[in-house]
Amino acid sequence: xxxxxxxxSVLVIAVFAAVWLYFxxxxxxxxxxxxxxxxxxxxxxxxxxxxxxxxxxxIFKDFTLFKDVLGEDIMKHLTALKNTFIDDAGFNExxxxxxxxxxxxxxxxxxxxxxxxxxxxxxxxxxxxxGINNLKQKFKVxxxxxxxxxxxxxxxxxxxxxxxxxAKTVWIGSFNENLVQKAVLESSNKKQKFFKGExxxxxRNKNAxxxxxxxxxxxxxxxxxxxxxxxxxxxxxxxxxxxxxxxNINYQKNAFMFSGIxxxxxxxxxxALFLKQQSGKCTLLDLVPFDAASYLFYLVSNQQTxxxxxxxxxxxxxxxxxxxxxxxxxxETHSINIEKEFPVVLGKEFGCIQVAxxxxxxxxxxxxxxxxxxxxxxxxxxxxxxxxRFDDSDLLYYHLGDPFKGFRRPYYAIIENHLLVSNNMQALxxxxxxxxxxxxxxxxxxxxxxxxxxxxxGNIFYFLHNSNAKAVVKSYLSSKANKQFKGEEFGWxxxxxxxxxxxxDKDKFFTNLYMSKVPELEDVxxxxxxxxxxxxxx
Length: 538
What we know:
Structural class: alpha+beta
């Protein structure tokens, strides 16, 4: 009996020891990974992560969208690095099964580069030193001291220089020396800057094939670095979206398909208003004209709750006084209680469409078209049989918020149960013509194929049509950036569009991001897509 008790005791101790060792190894691994992520400089906007295993390379060996988006030069650099550090037996073991992080940073005006970071365990550190010695036998490798670490410079046959170092348990490398230096300085920090207020391990899906991390305010600054405008309005929505996303990849042959969560850093922001709303089907997608360059739609489940929360936001912005004064002025001037009458005819969907010419059209679904027509007739001036213009400013902004800030005193038209507004009469007439002729983007074959991979449920819907946005992109980019964008270096002409959708999920947004190549000719009926503007905008 005593032997049985001793045996059981030994087994129990062994089990607890095994469990302790297992979780301590996990904890150590996560700590190493966290330190590596913390080394990424704070201005990173996009970070791509995958585990350095053969299965990843097998899955994506025929995937060409990376080259289209990153450009031929960066892809050649990354291929050279793979041949040198991953495929070469002398260095492969040092990085095998390590997470690799690729972050994109602006290095100067109209220029960007990639920083690569990998966490290393003690055994991998030893192997890395051996690997460096092997590299010295094959390439020209020089070294110098950098903040108590050794900075290695590897010169390839084409004279391209790759800089890398081992900063304690973190491998850091880039074709830009300044990026490596910034990362070395950051590596001593204990807190990461990318996910404000959140630990990296708490938002990361470590079981995914690959992950994508997005910091939206940083992305706005990054894109602005390629613009000819001092304060580009095109990135304003990103600047005012204080959030980060942690997304995992879902493989598709000719597309980036990611899903995951988005967290807001500031709960008192306009996007945060939609966290209190339930997601739903967006019917405005059916009315997008065939020449749309982009759209941004919003959906609420409870208009009254939204109005209350919007007023709270105006109080925070110290705009509530202006709102009250303006609505009171409208009511007194036109003898109508606009604050009582207008909200009840507002539907649950609204947003903005930008067409290929660059003009913008606001669209609002209504609950009572007849009542809306009467209300607006008392506070507007008729231009013709279809179009009128608001007599007063900011009515839409004070009832629906940020999407309508640019429509101060717009022209408007009503079709069925939708209110259309624009600062440009020609744009409004163009939309009405497309509506009458049923020329909608949703009826083109390529868009039908694109939309089949998207959910029609959500609260915030964004889409950019690459071909239709040519003129808009050209007006945004600097001449140097636009030349690169249109050149053979990049394959943006092969991209159909990009969509990102946010669905409220308690205190977070469930997020879907989708970017696809233009469908192959055999996948669609080429004659059915003749409405697209490729030929018009060349």
